[in-house]
Structure formats: structure tokens, C-alpha cells
Write a structure and sequence with these properties.
This protein is an alpha/beta fold. It is built from 15 helices and 17 strands.
Length: 362
């Protein structure tokens, strides 16, 4: 089940580094491992990077979307295949083990215990204010310091959340409510002068979670997104280059493959529902997961996906074990009860592989 070459393969961080290099001047460029994007992007006056939450490569290929015609590459997302991990990786230009946000739920062994690392609450958001996180510099800080005109377009309900405040610069963030609102914001004269626009679009993911991949509701969201992309690529008279990718894909999980697990307070279960992080004794963990299809791995095997910690701070967040749930199966720990149709977080091709879609207007 473990892909021992996972960290060596091109991924969403490699993609975001190439986009960053196309935005900044020569003196700010950073080292890259691959050439994933057409060199034509270097001639663009404006670069749009749309992160379509949940638009996995296999998911998109199952449709007749015209976006399939513009796929120039396919790469891995992060491990785990979770939104907050991918967004932090893009903003910080760093691997999850280095920026410190490496799962949907984290567990701080020193102070905060279980943490929802997507929706940080008032009791544990101060972890994001720690010296470790504060010492990191996002791409938005770099753009600001070097007077590069950029904007970050986010759904209004995500603005001023702890994670958003950690990842983005307030002055570069533009809220939107609807598709029309987003187009209006991008059509503003100031936005049209930007060198770089980052657009986070969540609706495809929401539909897949609630109704499932390939449901009529999900297909409708794909069509809506197609039209939105067309409008965005036609907005400017300047040379614009639009790159579209995703944070992950999703997989539908049949009801008979769902496992509500029970365990004592001696076992900490967190991470994702398909890549499950666990602290506790191996004997008790094996018993808890005895009826769940999948593979229990220790830290020596996990480091093929998430390298070993190099400092005490990351060590305090790093799990003792990880259980990789078999494809089309899922677990429900004590803190997660909502049953959805589509899920992610695992290592299946549907979840891990994301497209690189390139659409220039010149």
C-alpha cells in the first residue's frame, strides 16, 4: 500500500514553486526539481492560479469537461490528501513536515491535545502563534515586501479564520460570496493590474462530500466551474495565463464499508479518516483496528510519506503509528460522526493524483 517513491515524485509543492518563480524577479526565484508547466507562462503579464478543491484528476477524467483538453500534467498532492495541508504547502512553499500542518486533525502532546487543524478553535488557535509558526514567511509576505501586485480570492466565510490569518496577508485577501461576486472582484481595475491572482474555489469538494462524485449535483458543479473558468480567462486584454489544479480528489465510500471504532483514552486517534494517525500502545491499536481493512505502519514506514521530525516542536505533533485504510473504506473516530458520500485523506489514485490544467489567452 505504501508508495516508497512518493516523496521523490512531482507534487503540488513543485507546481506551486514553478508558479512562484514565474511571478517573481530573477533574484527571488527558488530551486525547483521538475519542469511541470509550459515555459509560455514566463511571457504572461498576469498569472491566475485556481485551486479547485476536490477536482482530482481521476474525478475530472470521468466527465466530458473541456478542461480535460487542457491537462498538461498530473502530479501528487500532499500526504495526507487534505485541504489544509495542501493550502499551507502552497502558501509557505514548504513540505508538510517543515511547515508543521500535516493533517486534518492534529494532536499536540505537550499542551493542546486534539486539534481540528482546518477550523482551529479559540482553545488551540494559539498554537499557530507559536515561535515555530511565526518564524515562517509565506509567499504573500514575500510579494508584499517586494512590491509585487497580487491578490488572494477567498470565500467570505473563510476570511479571518485562524488558518486564513496564518496563511495570507490581510491586505492582499479579497472576499467573495458568489460566482458573480468573484468575477466582479477579478474585473476590478486593480485586480486586472495584478501579476498574480490566487483563487480558492471550494464548491466541487462540498458537492462531492454531500452527494458523491458523479452525482447529478456534482456534475452540475463541474459545469458551473467550467463556465467560471471561461469567464476568468476572458477577463483581461493583457497576456494572462491560468493554471488550475486541486488539493485532492475524492472517492465514494459505500455504507457497508464504514467503521465506527471504539477505543480507550489511552489511545489518541487523529489525522484523517483514511490516513489515520495514532498514539498509544501497538497491542491496543491492533485490537482497535482489527476489523478495519487496511495496513498499520510505524514511524519507520511512515517516513516514506511524511519524513521523520528534525526538531522537538514537530516531534510533539508527530504520530506514533499510522493506519492506512483500504480504498473505498473509512473509519469514524469519536470526534467525527457525520456520514458523507465522498471522502479524501487517503492514498488512492482518486485522492492523490491532481491535474495541472493550463489555459493561456495568448
Amino acid at each position: 500500500m505504501i508508495n516508497k517513491y512518493f516523496l521523490e515524485e512531482p507534487n503540488i509543492l513543485d507546481l506551486s514553486k514553478e508558479i512562484f518563480n514565474a511571478v517573481v524577479d530573477e533574484n527571488l526565484k527558488i530551486e525547483t526539481r521538475f519542469e511541470l508547466i509550459s515555459k509560455k507562462i514566463e511571457d504572461a503579464e498576469t498569472i491566475n492560479f485556481i485551486l479547485a478543491d476536490g477536482l482530482g484528476f481521476s474525478n475530472l477524467q470521468s466527465t466530458d469537461s473541456y478542461l480535460n483538453e487542457h491537462i498538461n500534467n498530473v502530479v501528487n498532492t500532499t500526504f495526507p490528501s487534505s485541504t489544509n495541508v495542501a493550502l499551507t504547502t502552497i502558501a509557505m512553499q514548504a513540505n508538510p513536515i517543515d511547515h508543521g500542518v500535516f493533517s486534518y486533525y492534529m494532536y499536540d502532546k505537550l499542551k493542546y491535545g486534539l486539534i481540528n487543524a482546518l477550523n482551529w478553535n479559540s482553545e488551540n488557535k494559539n498554537l499557530l502563534l507559536s515561535k515555530y509558526f511565526n518564524n515562517q514567511s509565506s509567499i504573500w509576505s514575500i510579494f508584499k515586501e517586494n512590491n509585487i501586485y497580487t491578490s488572494n480570492f477567498q470565500p467570505k466565510n473563510l476570511i479571518n479564520t485562524p488558518l486564513s490569518n496564518f496563511l495570507y496577508e490581510e491586505k492582499s485577501t479579497v472576499p467573495y460570496i458568489s460566482h458573480e461576486d468573484l468575477i466582479n472582484a477579478l474585473s476590478d481595475s486593480l485586480s486586472l493590474e495584478n501579476k498574480y491572482n490566487f483563487i480558492y474555489y471550494p464548491n466541487i469538494d462540498v458537492s462531492a462530500h454531500v452527494f458523491g462524485v458523479n452525482s447529478k449535483e456534482w456534475i452540475r458543479e463541474i459545469k458551473i466551474f467550467e463556465e467560471l473558468v471561461k469567464k476568468i480567462t476572458e477577463l483581461s486584454n493583457k497576456k494572462s495565463y491560468t493554471v488550475i489544479s486541486a488539493d485532492h480528489g475524492l472517492t465514494n465510500v459505500p455504507k457497508e464499508n464504514r467503521f465506527h471504532i471504539d477505543y480507550s483514552e489511552n489511545v489518541n486517534i487523529y489525522g484523517d479518516q483514511r490516513s489515520v494517525y495514532i498514539n498509544g500502545s501497538k497491542k491496543e491499536i491492533i485490537e482497535v483496528f482489527s476489523k478495519v481493512p487496511g495496513q498499520l505502519i510505524d514511524r519507520s514506514e511512515l517516513n516514506h510519506l511524511l519524513p521523520v521530525p528534525e526538531n522537538d516542536f514537530i516531534e510533539s505533533l508527530y504520530p506514533d503509528y499510522c493506519f492506512l485504510v483500504e480504498d473505498k473504506n473509512i473509519i469514524y473516530p469519536h470526534h467525527l460522526k457525520t456520514e458523507l458520500a465522498g471522502y479524501h485523506g487517503g492514498m488512492s489514485t482518486e485522492e492523490i493524483k491532481i491535474p495541472i490544467i493550463e489555459i493561456p489567452n495568448f
